[in-house]
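$ ./design --mode recover --in tokens.txt
reading tokens...
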């Protein structure tokens, strides 16, 4: 079984080197790296030359930014039986490709599998929503809670059929700074593909709270919240959306009472972002319906 790892990257060097080093120790050797390089310079060229002696690398240059745009380009060049989209700052444990290959070979019924994301140095979740201990089939609601691209492995035919929404996600140039992961998983599920969550499959990623300062984290929570809110509005009824947003409100006051002012600010930023993202979705759908109705009236 051959894997294609489609890696979108911009502005990172040391993190890319760290990921590539993790590939050199994989116990499953049958894979290729499709590197979609959105840097305007050649900062990664030496890495490509060095690591291409250890495993195949398809190096693609793309001047336009956007993780989803890069993945859409990379997926067209992927030749593997299984395709995945690691982050440029993630790390693959040495056994992960072997474990995924075993999963697909032993369970032919599944079109894809999602693992969980641990911190780089600790055996604990790197993000608030990135997996639990309960393995099982993924529906839309669960996809929203555990879907994350760099822990998702899909059979080739899915990725060749389904593209990423280039209007959402990091670097897209829109207010929706995340949601591309889950939106893609939604598209797969809505296309009737069977995706399984396997809690035993683990990839690594830095915990954002160990990477960014207060201002950066505040913006991140707002931007990601807005992306998630937009995503919720596109795929779920308003009752579910508000059931996701409103329960977070008491935590603002709980963390304030405990003197955790930073966390209170992060939660507030996320709530505001999700609310605005949901409003983005509602207004865009309303405009779309207005245009459709206008065209219908003109035709009649």
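writing sequence...
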């Amino acid at each position: 079984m051959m894997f294609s790892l489609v890696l979108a990257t911009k502005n990172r060097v040391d993190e890319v080197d760290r990921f590539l080093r993790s590939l050199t120790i994989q116990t499953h050797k049958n894979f290729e790296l499709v590197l979609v390089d959105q840097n305007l310079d050649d900062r990664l060229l030496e890495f490509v030359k060095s690591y291409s002696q250890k495993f195949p690398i398809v190096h693609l240059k793309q001047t336009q930014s956007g993780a989803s745009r890069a993945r859409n380009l990379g997926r067209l060049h992927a030749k593997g039986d299984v395709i995945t989209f690691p982050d440029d700052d993630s790390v693959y444990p040495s056994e992960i490709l072997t474990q995924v290959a075993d999963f697909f070979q032993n369970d032919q019924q599944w079109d894809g599998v999602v693992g969980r994301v641990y911190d780089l140095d600790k055996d604990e979740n790197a993000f608030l929503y990135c997996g639990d201990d309960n393995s099982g089939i993924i529906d839309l609601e669960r996809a929203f809670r555990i879907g994350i691209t760099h822990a998702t492995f899909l059979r080739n035919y899915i990725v060749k059929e389904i593209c990423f929404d280039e209007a959402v996600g990091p670097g897209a140039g829109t207010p929706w700074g995340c949601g591309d992961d889950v939106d893609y998983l939604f598209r797969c599920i809505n296309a009737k593909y069977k995706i399984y969550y396997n809690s035993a499959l683990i990839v690594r990623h830095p915990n954002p709270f160990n990477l960014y300062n207060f201002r950066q984290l505040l913006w991140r929570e707002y931007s990601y919240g807005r992306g998630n809110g937009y995503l919720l509005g596109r795929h779920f009824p308003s009752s579910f959306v508000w059931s996701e947003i409103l329960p977070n409100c008491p935590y603002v006051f709980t963390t304030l009472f405990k003197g955790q002012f930073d966390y209170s600010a992060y939660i507030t930023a996320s709530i505001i972002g999700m609310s605005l993202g949901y409003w983005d979705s509602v207004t865009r759908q309303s405009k779309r319906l207005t245009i459709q109705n206008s065209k219908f009236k003109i035709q009649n």
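exit 0
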